[in-house]
Specification:
This protein is of the alpha/beta class and 529 residues long. The chain has 2 domains: 24-283 and 290-421, Rossmann fold; 431-528, ANL, C-terminal domain (GMP Synthetase, Chain A, domain 3, 2-Layer Sandwich). β23 (432-434) and β24 (437-439) form a beta hairpin.
Length: 529
């Protein structure tokens, strides 16, 4: 098996009903196989840290084996769906690996979801079992509302029958299930910014390749220490951090909830070397009064995704942490996290790019008629590779709409330059049409965020009976004395006239986001409809 620093050869293979994909020739066949390799190669190294708890890879294996035996005694079989409604905690990792060991399918649910959303996911995937945090008990749907659900197991501190703690005490030897690479390992429900969430089916093949893409591109090894500051229930936490830590046999440090001061203190104390966060989290770190007192010399890779990082933030991070390499990552649940990764060190040269397509991936830019556009021309990103999911669980119509010839149609507009660097301009639905002029909202947002008095911004189209749409900006201020006239003048010096926002909503309240931290522009557009 290839090491973290040794890239295996790539070859074409048929997967998912004869999709022809470029795949790493030398790889693990499942998520659990990656875990077994970490245990074999580094049994005594630290695997997990959460609060005062510290587990080696051997310790973690013992717990996972006992928990899987308990789940088997509860009737969980290969192919069953087991939902986990847990915060960032050790139990999340233990449960995920125990479920994988049985060949069952893990279905993470955000603890920020409310009762209707939880019920939708449980019913849509036909979950047989739910492992949940006790803090969400009052939000669980009634059992008669989720008829296929057999039982709920609370992850409480009490070591009583029927709890997750009791699973850890189970005796018995349950063999590791034999799974196929194309079998579904996890179902992750998409953010639901445009309707009811759909369950993306992440196969073992997808997760293994994405973990390899991160590990090989970023040179991650067993010496790396990763902090999970984003939810483990999200594809970033599950794949970019947890699965990647397993693949490189590094140490995963779990932060139960992100608070900038606590994150910085933890990163210094645990000598963090790598994490992946959204740009807003970096901004929150930068505005801490005492951020310079933390020793973050070990932090070498700061990955970010989910939104554009404004140039002002990039410059501030470079000043605060001159030894840190910022790495832009672009992907989605449907691409099992990364579709592109900025080569370390190239970010300063390609400021407007999200990097190059991952080694086994393929991205083409397509027009609305399904034809590839010329190089450097704008088009919709269609993405293919062993990291792209087969489709959506129990939803053939949505699968047929979003996938074509093995490509996932991202709904993002961008381009590829002559050197293979990808730029993402906007979501198709977020592009503003002002009297025939196409305006990418992200371009305007990036300029607004360069203003020293702006914390974050979102730009939407405001309906206009004459032009169709006009540019409206929602701005969260760091300096409440900043006026809309000042912002308009600031933009006018940096944008073409038709791109400059014509109206503003100024305030100090953070902009609305979903459970995974993505901006809810739908709500902002409704406000101006």
């Amino acid at each position: 098996m290839a090491t973290s620093l040794q890239a295996p050869p790539i070859r074409p293979e048929a997967h998912f009903d004869e999709r022809m994909l470029q795949c790493y020739a030398d790889r693990h066949h499942s998520l659990y196989a990656m875990f077994e390799e970490a245990v074999r190669s580094h049994p005594a190294r630290e695997a997990l840290v959460c609060g005062v708890a510290r587990l080696t890879w051997r310790d973690l294996q013992g717990r996972v084996e006992r928990i899987s035996a308990g789940l088997a005694q509860a009737g969980i079989c290969q192919g069953d769906r087991v939902a986990i409604l847990l915060n960032n905690q050790i139990e999340f990792v233990e449960a995920t690996l125990a479920i994988s060991r049985l060949g069952a399918i893990v279905v993470p649910i955000s603890t920020r979801d409310q009762t209707p959303g939880i019920a939708h996911i449980l019913n849509d995937c036909g979950a047989a079992l739910l492992i949940h945090d006790v803090t969400v008990t009052l939000r669980l749907p009634a059992m008669h509302e989720v008829p296929e659900l057999r039982a709920c197991i609370p992850a409480s501190m009490e070591d009583a029958a029927g709890t997750f703690a009791a699973l850890r005490r189970t005796s018995g030897d349950v063999p590791v299930a034999r799974v196929d690479e194309d079998d579904t390992a996890a179902i992750l429900y998409t953010s639901g910014t445009t309707g009811k969430p759909k369950g993306a089916m992440l196969a073992h093949l997808n997760i293994v390749h994405s973990a390899m893409h991160y590990g090989l591109t970023l040179d991650l090894t067993e010496h790396d220490r990763l902090i999970a500051a984003v939810p483990l229930s999200h594809v970033t936490g599950l794949v970019a951090l947890m699965a990647t830590a397993i693949r490189c046999a590094g140490t995963l440090v779990i932060l139960p909830a992100f608070r900038a001061a606590e994150f910085l203190a933890l990163a210094a104390r645990e000598r963090m070397t790598y994490t992946l966060m959204v740009p807003a989290m970096y901004n929150l770190c930068l505005i801490q009064d005492d951020c310079s007192r933390y020793d973050l010399a070990s932090w070498r890779i700061g990955a970010f995704g989910g939104a554009i990082m404004p140039q002002a933030t990039i410059e501030a991070v470079a000043k605060f942490l001159p030894g840190l390499t910022l790495v832009n990552v672009y992907g989605a649940t449907e691409t099992t996290s990364p579709a592109t990764i900025m080569p370390p060190g190239a970010g300063a040269t390609y400021l407007d790019s999200v990097g190059r397509v991952v080694p086994c991936g393929e991205i083409v830019m397509m027009d609305d008629a399904g034809r590839q556009v010329p190089p450097r021309a704008a088009g919709e990103l269609w993405i293919r590779g062993p990291m792209v999911v087969r489709g959506y669980w129990n939803n053939p119509a949505a699968t047929a709409e979003s996938f074509d010839s093995g490509f996932w149609k991202s709904g993002d507009i961008g381009s590829i330059d002559d050197n293979g660097f990808v730029s993402v301009f906007d979501r198709k639905k977020d592009m503003i049409n002002r009297g025939g002029f196409k305006i990418y909202s992200s371009e305007v947002e990036n300029v607004l965020c360069q203003h020293p008095g702006v914390f974050e911004a979102a730009v939407v189209g405001k309906p206009c009976p004459v032009l169709g749409e006009r540019v409206h900006a929602f701005v969260v201020l760091k300096d409440v004395s900043v006026t809309d006239l000042a912002l308009k003048a600031f933009c006018a010096e940096r944008l073409t006239d038709y791109q400059v926002p014509e109206s503003f909503s100024l305030g100090a309240t953070p902009l609305p986001r979903n459970a995974n931290g993505k901006m809810l522009k739908r709500e902002l557009r409704l406000e101006k409809a």
